[in-house]
Amino acid sequence: MRIQELADKAGLTAHTIRYYEKEGLFDRRHVRREENNYRSYSDEALDRLKLIKKFQGIGCSLAELKVILQDHDSHTLSNEEVMGWIRGKISEIESKKEEYDHMLDTLHWMMEYRMALMNDPRKAEEMLEQLRKLTGLNL
After folding, report:
1. What is the value of pTM for the model shown?
2. Which end of the chain is less congested by CB atoms within 10 angstroms, N or C?
């Protein structure tokens, strides 16, 4: 199949697919050059893109993708190495989750404060005073 057809099926742009090819995420099973130098993609290329998107969805970098795909193709990593990588990724995501939880807490406080400003200015002042005591900031 041609690149645009693959892009449409994968929900990506042709530019993205060319980039992945340039970065070595495809091999001869996925893409071939025809005599006219056009790229011809196999059905395996679509499966490869789905796998790439799945791993990007858990926050994998391009470098990680290369290692994952190399192992997927040739099983070069031991089970212990893969499990170590998974533990690291879990830790990374848990850390990000804590950051997002903190951001959400802050945004919820801000919304509650703004609602109090409109409906109960005394409560808003109490909230601000409590924040000053907790943070030591003069807001």
Report:
1. 0.73
2. C
